[in-house]
Amino acid sequence: MRHLNKINHLGRTSSHRKALMSNMAADLILRKRISTTTAKAKALRMYVEPLLNKSKENTTHSRRVVFSYLQNKFAVSELFKDISAKILNRPGGYTRILKTGVREGDNAEMCIIELVDYNLNMLSAGGDAKGKAVVRKSRRGGKKKAEGVEVKAESTKKAKDAKPKAEAKAPEATQTPDKESSEA
Three-class SS of residue 102? Predict the structure, then answer.
């Protein structure tokens, strides 16, 4: 049984895994989005989210604790200046994992891990969805089904009326170029 085996060791020694997570976390903070394998992204999410949560409290102690994990002063300053201001009201879930398919060569599952508040495309799409009215479709029968039959009957009548008019116009259009080409 897997009791207390929460950490994915990623096939690495402890020191190698700590260095990998530190470097990936610093890159994620500096670049806001990185591409990696799904297993590494899930391990990175567990590593970086407590650091992001720690950055909400801007004290010397929290800066030193975060620096002990990241070992990159530029990433720490970026985290406490810009990122902490954006995630201040968010109660958790600071990262998003988007699967992108498999890697050519070894068929490893690849994904993009990003900071949620920095994806402008998703934020703008989410804002548009809130403004639109949501139309719910029901699979149950009832009154709406009878109304739907009447609507279909009206639309088929309109379609039948529209077809003869289109056919009547089509022969006239083909006859005029023939007359002009025979005269020329």
Answer: strand
